[in-house]
Amino acid sequence: MAEDSRPILLWNFLLEVVGPSADGYSGEGSYLGQAGAPADGWRSLEKLNDTFGKCGWPHVGWQIDPFGHSREFANLLAMMGYDGLFLGRIDYQDKRARLKGKSSDIFTGVLFNTYSPPPGFCFDVLCADEPIIDDPSSPMYNVELKIMNFLDICTNMSKAYKTSNILLTMGEDFHYQDAAMWFRNLDKLIE
């Protein structure tokens, strides 16, 4: 994407910034710890504002790896102008009930697979998933199969949400050690 096209995409609501403020440390429960983490993201938010104006401001936050949630974190995001919050880690019984009943998107949505990539689509050196091979002359050519599997996963995920948009995460702790490998495969998935 050309760098000079980003403001146009943002102004026309074709591209949205997610983040960049952060949730608190997983075990942090104090008010100062909860309030301090999103504030750490203000420098990034100021840069977005200086570069793109109000249309560059994110509307959705996330808590992808905490071991508990508080109303105060949602309150802090609301005071910062956020409209929603995605959670990555919740009690398995709560998650099962929300996914089954399509109630996983209230003010807070729940990520389908924590923040991990879907099974079979981890393109990191730490994973054993096959890359997307798009050379038709290769005996390992697998584009159609990978795309079919990916669409099946997305269709299955979409059944758990009321909205027609889903947040598909493609990362995990310590991933993107070879970012070029990730992005090559993600580009193939998008094409």
From TrEMBL:
One of the record's GO molecular function terms: alpha-mannosidase activity
Pfam families referenced in this protein's UniProt entry, alphabetically: Glyco_hydro_38N
GO biological process: mannose metabolic process
Boundaries of every Glycoside hydrolase family 38 N-terminal domain copy: 48-191
GO cellular component terms given for this protein: lysosome
Coiled coil: none
Superkingdom of origin: Eukaryota
Signal peptide: none
InterPro entries assigned: Glyco_hydro/deAcase_b/a-brl, Glyco_hydro_38_N, Glyco_hydro_38_N_sf, Glycosyl_Hydrlase_38
Name of the protein described by the UniProt record: Glycoside hydrolase family 38 N-terminal domain-containing protein
Organism whose genome encodes this protein: Spodoptera exigua
